[in-house]
Amino acid sequence: MRLLRLLAGRYLLGLRRRTHVAAVSAVSFSAMALGAATLVLTLALLEGFQATIRRQLAESGVHALLRPRSGRTLPTGDWLERLRAAHPDLEIQASSGGAVWCLAELGALPADLVVVDTLSHVEVNRVLAHRLAVVPGSTLQLASPRLRLTPLGPLPSRRRLEVGAVVANRPGDDRAVVRVPRAVGAQLLGEQAPQAVELRAADPARAFDVASLVQANLPEGVEVVSFRDLNRPLLAALALERIMIGLGVALVMVVAALNLLCNLTLLAAEKRFDVALLSALGLRPADVSRLFVTLGLGVGALGGVLGAVAGSGLAVLLDRTRALPLPRGVFVVSHVPFRVTAAALAVVLAVSLGSALLASLAPARAAARRDILEGLRYE
Amino acid sequence: MSDAGSAAVRASGLVKGYGTGERRVEVLRGLDLEVARGEMLAVVGPSGVGKSTLLHLLGLLDRPDRGELALLGTDVTGLSVEERAAWRNRRIGFVFQFHALLPEFTLEENVAMPLLIGGTGRREALAAARELLTAVDLDERREHFPDQLSGGEQQRGAVARALVAGPDLLLADEPTGNLDADNAAAVFERIARLHLSRGLTSVIVTHNEALASRCDRIVRLVRAAADTACSRT
């Protein structure tokens, strides 16, 4: 209603005539703005770190995994070639594996052997590289449980190999892993049908879409595990972290809303005569109630928007200037990352308006129920 | 006396009291009153006798404990809160003793307020307010805020506000009680003039016998009852 907006606007802007109410209103407004800014900044910080973790996960991990619906090996046939032809932008690696012993100068270590059909060199992961002190160019001997007959009797199959690369572990994976080309794998474990196919997109940002991309090209007996399912525990933990910290920080908004409630109660008392006069002139109780809700929402919306803008600005500034550095080698990023998202801004504005609405209901109801004559005598 | 059929105000057996039990004070005990359409009635009496209470009942600002009240031919005793608000907005104009202007609004906006409350557009409401302000010689002060006006100007503004929505009934609660003699005369003069020009029915509560004597009729309230002991035309 136009009149209510006029009254609310004039009461908010015209409070300079009543300095104590104006001061409390300014505090309420500032509290809402500060709360909104804090919430935006916190959510931006969380999103910054979590986006980094998700990016690391996508860059180092598998974006989708094909595995047999039953049994240990995938169906035979040319479906894998057809899949590669249909998705040339995807890196598609069929793998099988087993257990081996890795022997180096520092000692021996059991490891998972992964045979990759597209690999041309030997890769070890960082766990294995660290424990055996091997680097690219080092020599590593692999011994498999597959026995071969020698003049000395049956002995484990062995291959002496040069390490081609050291690759990062998937987050949360502390197994020792060595990846070898298909020919090496066949010597160590014998010819094996693929047990799994790993899919990676060239652009890590598409990690979440890979499973749905290939779904239609898969034969019976092959199931696809999406990036989300592969990393479900970690992603769920990140989501839970965001929700819990967001809720915790949102308590700042509750405090701001309580302050707003006090302010509106004071304003309702201060404007007792005015409200009674407006009622005497024909303003309905429902409109009196709406007037105070409009006042509350006005403070909530203005404070929320201002706080969101200030919080976003600060987050962008801190991120771009890399103002908060992190110790090298401890964290995967060099500075504290901030990332403001539209969803976070929408949440903050919704929380601002919601808390302002809740805070204004009680004063609005009390003002609407007040006796007109009692208000007129107040002056 | 007026014809009941054409009465603008008809109250019968109005009872109004405050408090409960032994502390209950009955201000009006079975008051009967009729005001004819177009009549200008003065209500006089000592303080505490119930003049303002009567006016509040007539202005639908309060409800009687018992009795019946009809305004402009309509029984208003059982009206809902919303209906009473609509009546106050469109059919009744009220002038309070203390000028009662909203401090955050200009005089023009204050005068237009009943129309704005009633849903009239801002431009139209302000135009109507300007017309009324001209009628009470305040056109040049329309942009001023209440604290920039004298007491007399504020009260004339309050009279303009009471009439802006074109009510049928004007109720004034000691409209000159807070003014010096000159301003009181000026305010009363404008009320009387607008009463005639707009064909109003007016009920004016006053302590000022001289001003009361200029009304069509005087009703004198005595303790615990209404008595139309003194009336003249």
Total strand segments of chain B: 10
* Helix content, binned percent of chain A: 40-55%
Structural class of the secondary structure composition of chain A? alpha+beta
CATH fourth-tier homologous superfamily of chain B: P-loop containing nucleotide triphosphate hydrolases
Q: Could you spell the SSE succession of chain A in H and E letters? A: HHEHEEEHEEEHEHEHHHHHH
Determine the fraction of residues in helical runs of chain B and give it as a percent range.
25-40%
| Largest binding interface between chains | A-B, 24 and 28 residues
Shape-level CATH architecture of chain B: 3-Layer(aba) Sandwich
CA-based shape of chain A: elongated
Largest sheet of chain A: 6 strands, mixed, barrel
Task: Give the domain tally of chain B.
Answer: 1
SSE pattern of chain B, N- to C-terminal = EEEHEEHEHHHEHEHEE
Could you explain the architecture of this structure?
The complex is a heterodimer of chains A (379) and B (233). By secondary structure, chain A is of the alpha+beta class. Chain A is built from twelve helices and nine strands. Chain A folds into two domains: 2-57 and 234-378, no CATH class; 70-220. Chain A has helices at 2-13, 19-60, 79-86, 126-132, 182-189, 210-214, 227-230, 232-270, 272-280, 285-321, 342-369, 372-378; strands at 64-68, 90-104, 107-116, 122-125, 139-150, 153-167, 177-181, 196-201, 222-226. In chain A, helix 2 runs antiparallel to helix 8 (232-270), helix 8 (232-270) packs parallel to helix 11 (342-369) and helix 9 (272-280) crosses helix 12. The radius of gyration of chain A is 33 Å and the shape is elongated. Chain A starts with a helix and ends with a helix. With 233 residues, chain B is of the alpha/beta class. Chain B has one domain (4-227): P-loop containing nucleotide triphosphate hydrolases (Rossmann fold). Chain B is globular, with a radius of gyration of 17 Å. Mean pLDDT of chain B is 87; it is low at 225-233.
